[in-house]
Write a structure and sequence with these properties.
The protein is α+β, with helices and mostly antiparallel strands and about 400 residues long. The protein contains 11 helices and 14 strands. The strands form 3 sheets. A 7-stranded mixed beta sheet has the order 3-4-5-6-7-8-9, with helices on both faces. The longest helix has 23 residues. The structure holds adenosine monophosphate and magnesium ion (MG).
């Protein structure tokens, strides 16, 4: 936990809280086999969990920082459209127990909300899905708490009766804060790596605060990522959190253990390795491998979905992430929410991130990285060599 008097202490705390709660929701949906995807107009996949996670995070941000715009990936208009009616119903049903934590007795750390049956009014409320028992050392009721006015019929000392969540409320949360970006705003990817999520692989809930074009706060939660600490074999679920100038930390969600993130030092050069997307058409694997070979990386590369790749470098599991767009297709600008949180976590762990020409990423251009092409993220030590190798190979 950061010190309350440090700059951005509240933002860090809130960002971590709501991304962990949203990640819990995503795992609940995935474990109940409800992670099948709907197709968006651009043919990219979206699931109940993408919408539900965005709703939960926006609900918390709205309560904590009402003036802050939120640029989330998902669009409520699409979810409100007739072909998505079934999806909206299911998002609402899965969210119900997550937005009415006051019907639960207080949770002790480590207890899961599956442990206490929810007294939903029979008939009035939709059925509650079985909640994942993740055994994370988090107090979900606390994570989900938002400071709102009590309803007029609530009595002190008595839990409120649950009422059915209104799908219109879900839509309102999802579209909260989309009024324009301003100087200070949050950028949110409720599930980065939806393809990995559906496949049963890695994905991440990612949230970053941008002020004056600068990343200031970042939280990434990767629920399926192995913890990789001695004594935690088999444990999965890691949160990465960073504030500019204050370093980056990781938290193992099951044990609650936290540690400072640091990239691999130059002395470990012989073991440096490349990390790339699982989805081959999200980069150009042949070029990425050629660059890695040119700078002498010999350890076989890792493939991982989502911006958990930045966390992997920050914790020394990999050293160079290349995302080189193919020269054949029209350039696809990268989305700020696909990189922002990862960039700050890695920079605060001692790494470096630029585009493929060596230019810093410019987060002041709206929702896309319009001034950048490709991504090069590294432990810092091999950054210049990677940029030089890209240039020498004639990659444009
Ligand atoms: P990753 O798992 O690192 O490949 O990242 C997933 C992200 O890739 C998604 O959030 C998409 O926004 C993004 N994406 C989708 N299609 C492409 C593409 N053709 N090239 C690059 N990125 C893409
Ligand atoms: Mg994404």
């Amino acid at each position: 936990m950061s010190h309350p008097t440090l700059p951005y202490a509240q933002e860090r705390e809130v960002a971590l809280r709501c991304t962990i709660a949203a990640a819990h929701f995503c795992e609940t949906v995935r474990q109940s086999q409800a992670s099948n995807a709907f197709s968006k107009p651009d043919h990219s996949p979206v699931t109940i969990a993408d919408y539900g996670a965005q709703a939960l995070i926006c609900r918390t941000l709205q309560a904590a920082f009402p003036a802050d715009p939120v640029m989330g990936e998902e669009d409520a208009q699409l979810l409100a459209s007739p072909p998505m009616a079934d999806c909206l119903q299911r998002v609402t049903r899965y969210l119900q127990p997550y937005v009415q934590p006051y019907v639960q007795p207080p949770l002790t750390p480590g207890q899961d909300i599956a442990g206490s049956p929810t007294p939903i009014d029979s008939g009035a409320a939709p059925s509650v899905p079985t909640l994942a028992n993740l055994n994370w050392q988090v107090n979900l009721a606390e994570l989900l708490e938002v400071k709102t006015e009590p309803s007029p019929d609530s009595q002190p000392g008595h839990p409120q009766r649950a009422t059915a969540l209104d799908p219109q409320q879900v839509l309102a949360w999802i579209s909260h804060g989309r009024s324009g970006l301003g100087d200070r705003f949050w950028t949110l990817d409720p599930i980065d790596g939806t393809k990995g999520y559906v496949r049963g692989d890695q994905y991440a809930v990612a949230l970053a605060l941008i002020e004056g074009g600068q990343l200031q706060v970042a939280a990434i939660v990767a629920p399926a990522l192995p913890v990789n600490l001695p004594g935690s074999e088999g444990d999965r679920g890691v949160a990465f959190v960073a504030v500019r100038g204050q370093g980056a930390q990781a938290i193992a969600l099951k044990s609650g253990q936290s540690w400072t993130l640091r990239v691999n030092p130059p002395e470990q050069q012989a073991n440096f390795r490349l990390i790339e997307s699982v989805e081959r058409d999200h980069g150009t694997p042949a070029w990425q491998q050629a660059v890695a070979a040119a700078i002498g990386l010999q350890v076989p590369s890792l493939q991982m979905d989502s911006l958990a790749k930045y966390g992997a470098i920050a914790r020394g599991e990999a050293d160079l992430y290349l995302r080189l767009p193919s020269g054949n297709s029209t350039l696809r600008w990268e989305n700020i929410w696909d990189h922002g949180a990862g960039v700050l976590v890695l920079e605060e762990a001692g790494g470096r991130v630029t585009d493929q020409t060596g230019k810093p990423l410019d987060f002041s251009q709206g929702t896309k990285l319009l001034n950048n092409k490709g991504i090069v993220a590294s432990n810092g030590t091999l950054h210049e060599a990677a940029i030089a190798a890209i240039r020498a190979q004639g990659i444009e």
